[in-house]
Recover the amino acids of this structure.
């Protein structure tokens, strides 16, 4: 009944494979701990904003690289062999670098949230992946790279926030399999698509229809909505969720996490709007309009979201994405126009 939930949240039988290696920064020659992936997968399906979810280790958070000394950032170990523009090298080695490192809490090697999405493939880097993507985006902009690459860096940062900055993880991973199964008792997934991610979001919404939430139900529903980036659903349901969990201090942590994700969603949106002026060959304009609608929805901008979804349906979309483009406007009923509280 809920085997795929257990697979996704408790144990991964479809893990990626790879190893940790030491490399040198191509800018300052500082030693780098990097993840080399040999294989991965997307058996976890896709979120409505198109994040492909691995059934095992997440390339999204184990692959990006940041030099702790000069702050050079890049996508993965393969890009370490590519030449670094002299303009960027000079800037990185300057006494006053133009790049700003976001404030973050270091990831410690033995920390409680080191393993859930990494399957032992997380390198010794202490910066969260969203920090690495932030600096990568800054450097892509500095060197005049395309809006397509800058979009990917910004959106990857938003996704990485979901996976790393989710305070409900510590509660979920403390649950036993029996507690988890009980929390989902009576909840049946749609299974209309071969997409575990979509089914997990559906299950969270069904859990929240219960008049009285148990602590475990609140943890599961809250975790699923947060890790899938369903921000407006989570904000509407949060008073009930935190009351059932009984940990009021979680409120500020969740608010900060959502606010941080929205920073990068806003940056990704700006890139998509730029791309719509001159769409790249890699993506259909209809898909860009759909993504624009998703970003507006998650940023609490329902009118703009409806307009973008409508334009997406006027263009060319894959059949599976048409279903989402038609259904997503229904979710705007929970969106409160204006900035999030």
């Amino acid at each position: 009944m809920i085997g795929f939930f257990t697979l996704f949240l408790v144990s991964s039988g479809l893990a990626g494979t790879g190893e940790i290696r030491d490399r040198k920064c191509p800018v300052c020659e500082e030693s780098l701990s990097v993840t080399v992936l040999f294989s991965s997968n997307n058996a976890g399906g896709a979120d409505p904003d198109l994040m492909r979810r691995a059934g095992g280790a997440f390339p999204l958070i184990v692959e990006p690289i940041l030099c702790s000394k000069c702050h050079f950032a890049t996508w993965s170990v393969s890009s370490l062999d590519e030449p670094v523009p002299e303009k960027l090298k000079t800037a990185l080695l300057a006494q006053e670098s133009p790049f700003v490192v976001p404030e973050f809490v270091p990831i410690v090697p033995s920390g409680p949230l080191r393993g859930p999405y990494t399957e032992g493939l997380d390198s010794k880097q202490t910066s969260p992946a969203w920090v690495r993507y932030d600096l990568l985006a800054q450097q892509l902009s500095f060197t005049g790279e395309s809006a397509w690459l800058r979009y990917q860096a910004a959106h990857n940062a938003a996704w990485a926030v979901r996976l790393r900055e989710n305070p409900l993880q510590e509660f979920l991973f403390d649950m036993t399999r029996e507690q988890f199964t009980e929390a989902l008792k009576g909840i049946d997934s749609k299974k209309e698509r071969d997409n575990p991610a979509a089914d997990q979001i559906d299950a969270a919404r069904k859990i929240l229809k219960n008049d009285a939430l148990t602590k475990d139900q609140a943890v599961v529903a809250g975790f699923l909505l947060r890790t899938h980036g369903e921000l407006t659903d989570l904000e509407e349901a949060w008073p009930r969720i935190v009351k059932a969990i009984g940990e009021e201090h979680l409120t500020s942590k969740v608010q900060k996490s959502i606010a941080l994700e929205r920073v990068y969603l806003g940056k990704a949106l700006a890139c998509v709007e730029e791309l719509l002026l001159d769409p790249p060959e890699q993506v259909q304009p209809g898909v860009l309009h759909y993504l624009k609608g998703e970003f507006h929805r998650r940023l609490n901008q329902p009118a703009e979201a409806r307009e973008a979804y409508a334009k997406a349906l006027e263009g060319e979309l894959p059949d599976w994405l048409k279903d989402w483009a038609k259904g997503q406007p229904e979710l705007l009923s929970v969106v409160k126009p204006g900035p999030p509280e």
Observations:
- The first helix runs from residue 3 to 9.
- The first strand starts at residue 17 and ends at 24.
